[in-house]
């Protein structure tokens, strides 16, 4: 079944309100009362038959479910239900996906909340498949939340002429097959494992441990971004730390202090975190302690200080001392 959306007709209101009380969502509000009609829409089949309803804003809130939760700035509360005879047949995901696409396009909202009965595992699964995550529980209700704030790329583009560490080979890309002669284009690239935005493995300084030994969960999660002046030690409160060095360098003493503060993942915007140091002692201290080191993040512009969701995805190069990564950041939304 394919779903669409349309306006909810006046004569359909009673049925829709009845479904809100009977179907799996069990929301208690009456979404089509006159004061809320502007924020209610029908889910329909290809022939226009009413299959469900969804609503947003205050109209979406069942009082018994929402009393425990405060409003969040720039967050849209939603609710939805299907016609009772359609529930339990696997249509929930398609229907709610249709509703979410319409809401995202129409309202421009990026953060959404929905209250789901805590006992309704099927409804929770539908919303999880739409990337909603459990946020809070109250009585018989579970509040689920979606943050659809766009990800921003903090990766250096790999291109000819880009800056590389002194002595490293330059990046190059060449076509070895061409559309005109071969029927398609195919490129080959040449680069150091430490070109662009990259991680260092312990093997980079002669220690045991290569790229595949770094668990993915250590590379992804929340990260704190700070402008670094060498003095802001009291501002560090995260295990994952991303520093804008502003052409400064980290010293061995800095590395030891970062370890004492519990830093386990350290990223910088410079080609290297210990610029000008020939002994690589800062690297050794951090890598020996198991800290993941990332260098050359593209965070000079477009990223404010604060907390970010991070996706750090290195190439899987077994046995390698480092690997280029794709670094994505998404600003934590205020609650």
UniProtKB/TrEMBL annotation:
Residue ranges of domain N-acetyltransferase in the record: 44-132
Coiled coil ranges: none
Transmembrane segments: none
GO molecular function, one term: acyltransferase activity, transferring groups other than amino-acyl groups
InterPro entries: Acyl_CoA_acyltransferase (IPR016181), GNAT_dom (IPR000182), KFase/CYL (IPR007325), KFase_sf (IPR037175)
Pfam family membership, one: Acetyltransf_1
GO-annotated biological processes: L-tryptophan catabolic process to kynurenine
Superkingdom in the source lineage: Bacteria
The protein's name in its UniProt record: Cyclase family protein
Organism the protein comes from: Candidatus Avichristensenella intestinipullorum
């Amino acid at each position: 079944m394919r779903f669409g959306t349309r306006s909810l007709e006046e004569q359909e209101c009673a049925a829709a309100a009845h479904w809100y009380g009977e179907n799996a969502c069990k929301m208690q509000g009456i979404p089509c009362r006159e004061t809320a009609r502007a924020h209610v829409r029908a889910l329909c089949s290809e022939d226009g038959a009413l299959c469900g309803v969804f609503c947003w804003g205050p109209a979406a809130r069942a009082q018994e479910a929402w009393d425990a939760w405060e409003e969040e700035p720039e967050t849209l509360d939603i609710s939805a239900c299907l016609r009772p005879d359609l529930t339990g047949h696997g249509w929930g995901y398609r229907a709610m996906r249709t509703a979410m696409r319409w809401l995202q396009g129409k309202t421009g909202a990026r953060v959404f909340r929905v209250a789901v009965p805590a006992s309704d595992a099927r409804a929770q699964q539908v919303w999880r498949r739409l990337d909603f995550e459990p946020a809070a529980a109250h009585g018989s209700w579970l509040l689920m939340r979606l943050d659809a704030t766009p990800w921003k790329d903090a990766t250096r583009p790999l291109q000819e002429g880009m800056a590389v560490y002194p002595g490293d080979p330059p990046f190059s890309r060449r076509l070895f097959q061409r559309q005109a002669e071969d029927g398609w284009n195919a490129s080959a690239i040449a680069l150091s494992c430490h070109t662009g935005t990259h991680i260092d493995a312990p093997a980079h300084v002669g220690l045991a441990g290569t790229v595949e030994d770094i668990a993915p969960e250590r590379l992804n999660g929340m990260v704190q971004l700070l402008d670094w002046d060498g003095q802001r030690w009291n501002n560090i409160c995260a295990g994952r730390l991303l520093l804008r060095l502003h052409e400064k360098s980290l010293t061995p003493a800095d590395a030891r202090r970062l370890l004492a503060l519990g830093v386990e993942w350290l990223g910088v915007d410079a080609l290297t975190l210990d610029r000008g140091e020939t002994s690589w002692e800062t690297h050794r201290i951090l890598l020996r302690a198991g800290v993941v080191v990332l260098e050359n993040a593209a965070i000079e512009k477009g990223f404010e200080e604060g907390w970010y969701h991070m996706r750090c995805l290195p190439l899987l190069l077994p046995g390698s001392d480092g690997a280029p990564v794709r670094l994505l950041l998404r600003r934590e939304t205020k609650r």
